[in-house]
Amino acid sequence: MFSVKELVESVSLTSLPSNYIFGNTESDRHCLLMEPEETVPIIDFSLLTSHDPHQRSKTITQLGNACLDWGFFMVINHGVAETLRDEMVRETESFFDLRGDEKKQYAGKKLFDPIRCGTSFNANVDKTLLWRDYLKIHVHPHFNAPSKPYGLSKVLREYCEKTREMASELLRGISESLGLEERYINEKLGVESSESHQLFVANMYPPCPQPELAMGLPPHSDHGLLTILMQNGIQGLQVMHKGKWVLINPLPNSFLVNTGDHMEILTNGKYKSVVHRAVVNNKSTRISIGTAHGPPLDTPVSPAKELVADDAGQAYLGITYRNYLELQQSKSLSGKSCLDRLRFSM
Ligand code: OGA
Ligand code: NI
């Protein structure tokens, strides 16, 4: 079966097919912080770009704390129009609604193919299938878009430009929060260069007959420096915080941002990538849209010298983003297993 969406539309399911039984996620749902004693950090983007140095520096401190404590935060007052966000969700839905034969040209191909859609994570090797369909598009340095639905390309281009600008601005603030020059990360990692890499990922999680037994996306960390995510109003994202899963309830019109593995490598472990997962529900289709922001594919990334005390203090091996993506895509998605391969044993 090529997609979960087709599966639920073709038969009336009363129970979960056995190849989707992930295990009982109910027990660990008890770990959820229902009333988190700490709330998810909120970053007011307009203050980060403010000309008032006091406001800006206060926000940079908040941003640094968010990266240290959570690896995850919500961004408000970001200036991306709500209409653009809504259109992006609608066009994504229309893509998933295309007939199977219209999507097939993008199915089951290789990691660096410009456009790829499919199901699960790595359906060839996943022992248990995930309750998730996806569309992945490499949108920078070369912009790509499916020719259908007709309106997708324009909206996608604009959405990806806006999120790229947001990522650069956040990385300026993050550089400063580390005591580095504002332009440090963007310059050293070529994030603002014409070769920087951006991957658009849309996830669709159809209603599931036994959501407690299935998994949308298992616990994992993201590969890049930052991921910027939004969703269609249906909850499902959970973030690991202090050993517990926290269900994320985003403020209206906010973006969710998390630090990725390349941030952890670059900062020599000071800002760790955050483990998160997506659970599913039995009522509504959930759509989430993420953009992963990384360096140019062939730029080697290793811990910033400024953040490593001495030669013996380097905690991770350097790697190019390309090799890292290949490593992650060669297996099933599992926690921080890719990053673990780059750790120096100390
Ligand atoms: C991802 C991801 C979370 C979500 O695409 O890497 O973690 O809420 N998505 O769908
Ligand atoms: Ni993720």
Automatic annotation (TrEMBL):
<feature type="domain" description="Fe2OG dioxygenase">
    <location>
        <begin position="195"/>
        <end position="295"/>
    </location>
</feature>
<dbReference type="InterPro" id="IPR005123">
    <property type="entry name" value="Oxoglu/Fe-dep_dioxygenase_dom"/>
</dbReference>
<protein>
    <recommendedName>
        <fullName>Fe2OG dioxygenase domain-containing protein</fullName>
    </recommendedName>
</protein>
<keyword id="KW-0408">Iron</keyword>
<dbReference type="Pfam" id="PF14226">
    <property type="entry name" value="DIOX_N"/>
</dbReference>
<keyword id="KW-0560">Oxidoreductase</keyword>
<dbReference type="GO" id="GO:0016491">
    <property type="term" value="F:oxidoreductase activity"/>
</dbReference>
<dbReference type="InterPro" id="IPR050295">
    <property type="entry name" value="Plant_2OG-oxidoreductases"/>
</dbReference>
<dbReference type="InterPro" id="IPR027443">
    <property type="entry name" value="IPNS-like_sf"/>
</dbReference>
<keyword id="KW-0479">Metal-binding</keyword>
<dbReference type="GO" id="GO:0046872">
    <property type="term" value="F:metal ion binding"/>
</dbReference>
<dbReference type="InterPro" id="IPR026992">
    <property type="entry name" value="DIOX_N"/>
</dbReference>
<comment type="similarity">
    <text>Belongs to the iron/ascorbate-dependent oxidoreductase family.</text>
</comment>
<dbReference type="Pfam" id="PF03171">
    <property type="entry name" value="2OG-FeII_Oxy"/>
</dbReference>
<dbReference type="InterPro" id="IPR044861">
    <property type="entry name" value="IPNS-like_FE2OG_OXY"/>
</dbReference>
